[in-house]
């Protein structure tokens, strides 16, 4: 599991834990837990939601580690702008969701509120899936880039506060995911990528016609996908 | 109010160029080094205790270009102008990459704060390679320096370049030459790069030798490649004239910055014409002649 401490983001959301699991065998179970958690009320519901408070990402649609990292950085950057009235008014579709997910209270509540994430989906974790998508269709993006019953290569992300510890988060992941934890760098190996699907989603087949070597074409495709993610919010 | 994530990044970065429209910064990594956690009982690691180790983040050195607020513009106008220019630059870069034109990859776009982050190209500008900066220009720059103030950093760098140009050959040229690259080859690569760019219907808007970089390609079919940068003034072309103006700007840049290389410029056009193909080149060639004539008349009258 890799942990990035991104000091340029507000302390309530500045730690990103990322794990890549291969040969995952319990995707349907995890999804059941997610659905159950969202319907339960009371304290039990609260606990259940906390236990599954992760971003679950279909790893076969990630073309590189950078693709994922840029997706996360872009999500944080666009959703965590310092309070600015012109932003909330320009995006009337946004509904700030109460970020009830972090167990540890943040010391300066005011500072935290001023940078409460503004998301179009449920929370920052699901917002990553929208950022990774080639379009702005929320349900399609979540379905495609999120976990499905057949997912066996899975990325799990937790965005947490500055004090969040690796060990504690790992324990939560371990309880949930039945798969093999591997180095995140394996996202850079071609073996994991479902290129036909990625090509279709990001319209990459035209790149096959470029007068370049196969290796250069592959790099150009990767760069194109990452660019798409990095600039989507200004297109 | 807290400061934006972009401004945090700028604080960590090194200012490398201060222009009238933008400040350019270099940052060795967009991301901090991550820690790696291996669980004690993990199948991948046979150790008995949990391990946390530092690892290297993927290579992500970035250039951050900050379009700062202009006091002389109305704030609302300034913001919308900044946002649209930034968005256009980001989209142009993405479009170029998709079309196989070699440009920096986009990594960070914060239009609300005027910051774009892109892959840092490790190499030299063509201007540096050719030992840019003419003596005449240098004197003018010296005279103007105090008035310009804001441009100071850039200017003094140019002066250093021009002094070097007279005495020794540039570091970049020495490196290229050692790989057997000739100046003619460099001109051909530049012409091809521009033809590729124009093939996407994007015009650069500020084609100068500072806005083209040379970098080595250890795995490529050629020893080096041309990387076009600075798409802040780019736009979409609709008429042959637009392409011709783009070429004319470069022609003038060559004449003023590299008078000793002016003869080489013909090689750029030849490769451009070949890259674009006869049919597309013809109308542009006609327009280019007109544009040159207009330029010369302007020079004589004013
Ligand atoms: N991606 C990059 N990689 C390496 N160096 C870069 C990159 N982008 C910019 N630079 C360096 O910074 C300088 C200024 O960048 P750029 O031309 O984009 O900004 P600008 O302010 O628009 O400049 P100009 O005064 O030409 O309009 C470049 O000439 C180059 O030396
Ligand atoms: Mg420039």
UniProtKB/TrEMBL annotation, chain A:
A single GO CC term for this protein reads: nucleus
Which segments carry the region annotation Disordered? 81-111
Matches recorded under SUPFAM superfamilies: PF0523-like (SSF143870)
Query: Transmembrane residues, as ranges?
Result: none
Q: Which GO terms describe its molecular function?
A: kinase activity
- Tell me where in or outside the cell this protein is found: Nucleus
The source's domain of life comes to Eukaryota
User: Primary place of residence?
Assistant: nucleus
Low complexity bias: where? 85-105
The UniProt keywords, alphabetically, are:
Kinase, Nucleus, Transferase, tRNA processing
BP-aspect Gene Ontology terms = tRNA threonylcarbamoyladenosine modification
Task: Give the family per the record.
Answer: Belongs to the CGI121/TPRKB family.
PANTHER family named among the record's database cross-references = CGI-121 FAMILY MEMBER, EKC_KEOPS COMPLEX SUBUNIT TPRKB
Q: What is the documented function of this protein?
A: Component of the EKC/KEOPS complex that is required for the formation of a threonylcarbamoyl group on adenosine at position 37 (t(6)A37) in tRNAs that read codons beginning with adenine. The complex is probably involved in the transfer of the threonylcarbamoyl moiety of threonylcarbamoyl-AMP (TC-AMP) to the N6 group of A37. CGI121 acts as an allosteric effector that regulates the t(6)A activity of the complex. The EKC/KEOPS complex also promotes both telomere uncapping and telomere elongation. The complex is required for efficient recruitment of transcriptional coactivators.
> What is the designated name of this protein?
EKC/KEOPS complex subunit CGI121
Organism for this UniProt entry: Kockovaella imperatae
UniProtKB/TrEMBL annotation, chain B:
Q: Which GO terms describe its biological process?
A: tRNA processing; tRNA threonylcarbamoyladenosine metabolic process
**Which InterPro entries does the protein's record reference?**
EcKL, Kinase-like_dom_sf, Prot_kinase_dom, Tyr_kinase_AS
Concerning Pfam families, the annotation shows: EcKL (PF02958)
Q: Could you list the residue ranges forming a coiled coil in this record?
A: none
Task: Provide the transmembrane region boundaries.
Answer: none
Catalysed reactions, semicolon-separated = L-threonyl-[protein] + ATP = O-phospho-L-threonyl-[protein] + ADP + H(+); L-seryl-[protein] + ATP = O-phospho-L-seryl-[protein] + ADP + H(+)
Q: List the Gene Ontology MF annotations in alphabetical order.
A: ATP binding; hydrolase activity; protein serine/threonine kinase activity
- Domain named Protein kinase is located at 10-302
Q: Which UniProt keywords apply?
A: Activator, ATP-binding, Chromosome, Hydrolase, Kinase, Nucleotide-binding, Nucleus, Phosphoprotein, Serine/threonine-protein kinase, Telomere, Transferase, tRNA processing
Q: Which GO terms describe its cellular component?
A: chromosome, telomeric region; cytosol; EKC/KEOPS complex; nucleus
**Localization in the cell:** Chromosome, Telomere; Nucleus
Principal cellular location given in the protein's record: nucleus
Protein's recorded name: EKC/KEOPS complex subunit BUD32
User: PROSITE patterns in the record, alphabetically?
Assistant: PROTEIN_KINASE_DOM, PROTEIN_KINASE_TYR
Instruction: Report the EC code(s) recorded for this entry.
Output: 2.7.11.1
Summarize subunit and interaction data from the UniProt record for this chain: Component of the EKC/KEOPS complex composed of at least BUD32, CGI121, GON7, KAE1 and PCC1; the whole complex dimerizes.
Family, as annotated: Belongs to the protein kinase superfamily. BUD32 family.
Q: What does this protein do?
A: Component of the EKC/KEOPS complex that is required for the formation of a threonylcarbamoyl group on adenosine at position 37 (t(6)A37) in tRNAs that read codons beginning with adenine. The complex is probably involved in the transfer of the threonylcarbamoyl moiety of threonylcarbamoyl-AMP (TC-AMP) to the N6 group of A37. BUD32 has ATPase activity in the context of the EKC/KEOPS complex and likely plays a supporting role to the catalytic subunit KAE1. The EKC/KEOPS complex also promotes both telomere uncapping and telomere elongation.
């Amino acid at each position: 599991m890799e942990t990035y401490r991104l000091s340029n983001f507000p302390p309530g959301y500045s730690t990103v834990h990322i794990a890549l699991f291969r040969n995952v065998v319990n995707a349907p179970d995890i999804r059941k837990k997610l659905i159950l958690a969202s319907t339960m009320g009371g304290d039990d519901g609260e606990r259940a939601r906390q236990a599954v408070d992760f971003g679950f990402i279909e790893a076969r649609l990630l073309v590189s580690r950078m693709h994922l990292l840029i997706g996360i950085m872009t999500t944080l950057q666009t959703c965590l702008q310092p309070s600015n009235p012109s932003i909330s008014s320009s995006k009337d579709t946004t509904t700030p969701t109460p970020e009830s997910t972090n167990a540890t209270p943040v010391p300066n509540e005011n500072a935290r509120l001023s940078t409460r994430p503004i998301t179009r989906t449920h929370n920052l974790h699901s917002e990553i899936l929208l950022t990774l998508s080639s379009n702005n269709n929320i349900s399609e993006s979540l379905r495609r880039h999120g976990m499905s019953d057949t997912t066996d290569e899975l990325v799990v992300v937790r965005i947490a506060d500055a004090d969040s510890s690796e060990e504690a988060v790992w324990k939560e992941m371990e309880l949930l995911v039945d798969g093999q934890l591997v180095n995140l760098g394996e996202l850079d190996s071609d073996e994991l990528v479902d290129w036909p699907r990625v090509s279709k989603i990001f319209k990459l087949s035209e790149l096959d016609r470029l007068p370049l070597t196969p290796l250069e074409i592959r790099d150009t495709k990767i760069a194109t996908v990452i660019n798409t993610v990095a600039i989507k919010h200004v297109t | 109010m807290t400061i934006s994530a972009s401004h945090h990044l700028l604080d960590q970065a090194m200012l490398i160029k201060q222009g009238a429209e933008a400040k350019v910064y270099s940052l060795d990594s967009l991301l901090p080094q991550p820690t790696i956690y291996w669980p004690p009982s993990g199948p991948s690691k046979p150790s008995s205790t949990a391990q946390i180790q530092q690892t290297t983040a993927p290579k992500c050195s970035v250039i951050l270009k900050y379009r700062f607020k202009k006091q002389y513009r109305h704030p609302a106008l300034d913001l919308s102008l900044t946002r649209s220019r930034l968005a256009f630059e980001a989209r142009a870069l993405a479009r170029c990459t998709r079309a196989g034109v070699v440009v920096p990859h986009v990594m960070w776009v914060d239009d609300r704060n005027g910051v774009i982050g892109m892959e840092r190209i490790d190499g030299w500008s063509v201007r540096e390679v050719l030992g840019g900066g003419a003596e005449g220009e240098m004197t003018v720059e010296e005279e103007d320096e105090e008035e310009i103030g804001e441009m100071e950093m850039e200017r003094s760098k140019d002066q250093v370049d021009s002094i070097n140009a007279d005495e020794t050959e540039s570091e970049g040229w020495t490196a290229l030459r050692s790989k057997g690259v000739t100046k003619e080859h460099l001109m051909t690569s530049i012409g091809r790069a521009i033809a590729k760019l124009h093939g996407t219907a994007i015009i650069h808007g500020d084609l100068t030798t500072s806005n083209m970089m040379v970098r080595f390609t250890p795995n490529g079919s050629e020893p080096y490649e041309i990387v076009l940068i600075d798409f802040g003034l780019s736009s979409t072309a609709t008429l042959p004239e637009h392409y011709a103006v783009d070429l004319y700007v470069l022609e003038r840049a060559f004449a003023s910055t590299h008078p000793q290389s002016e003869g080489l410029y013909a090689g750029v056009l030849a490769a451009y014409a070949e890259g674009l193909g006869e049919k597309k080149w013809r109308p542009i060639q006609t327009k280019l002649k007109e544009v040159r004539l207009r330029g010369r008349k302007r020079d004589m009258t004013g």
